[in-house]
Amino acid sequence: MTGAEKAAVLMLYLGPEATARVFEHLEDGDIKKISQSMSKLGHVPRQQITDVIAEFTDITNPETGFFAQGEDFVKKILERALGPQRAELLLQEIRTSGIGDMTDILSSMDPRTIANFFSQEHPQTIAVVLAKLKPKQTSEIISLLPQDLQAEVVIRIAEVDQVSPEILNEIDEVIRVELTALGGVQRFKVGGVEKVVDVFGHLDRSREKKILDKLDTLNPPLAEVIRKHLFTFEDIFKLDDRAIQVVMREVSNDTLTLAMKTSPDDVKQKIFRNISSRAAEMISEDLEVMGPVRLSDVEKAQSEIIKIVRKMEEDGKVVIAGRGSDDVLV
Asked: Which part of the chain is the Flagellar motor switch protein FliG C-terminal domain (predicted)?
């Protein structure tokens, strides 16, 4: 029996109250594995229950047992029996199979790494795997796939309804082996700018400013990237009309026109409501006749406006509620 199966037998023997108290101290992944094993157990022979309880008693008895560095021991045995190269390949498979199912593996990996890996796979295979992931991660991976693959994968995800467990297991095993060969399971997404932005979202404004001011000295490019992610151009228009009017008085028409190039209609209408009718008419006409522009130019114009808003916030001229702040607007 696996460790999860033994734990499932023990929990079922102890009953729901004890199981609930144990689950309070476990990680979600461990709870998932034990719960899955519980649902698959069926009839458990009395002798098997006795063996599990006896093993649990031995392990929890402080006077019994020993400590062993299992992987080092297995590595030495495999190298002696199979040679270094074959031993390392087998160890990689063992490590991979112990991590969890394919969904668990991919959920912790960087989307760009996954997209690069899948770029050589058949669209149907990609669709079956991505359909099992959370929508946010699926969308990130699709956006990073080669352009000609994106629509193909989306079509197949839409068409995927039911897939037999045998096919799923076969696909998971093939992907697992290929990831292992590439060392892909070693590249997990544990940080990055998005993580930092998420952390900043729970800080109060004064603490956020102190950290960013320090980053301006230590790593100015990183500070600028974080600022850009913390507050988007569209976020400006979540302010009330009075605050938007204050901001718009500080922005030139040329900068505003370029910044609005990619804005949705609701954002444009909110801007037009909060500037003079003459300015709104001019900007609307300029947008209609404006030809193609570089996305980088649009983003630069939007960044200029974002800087104006953040400076005005620091000066107390506008208030942006939320993100760790205790401010209440009345």
From this structure: 214-320
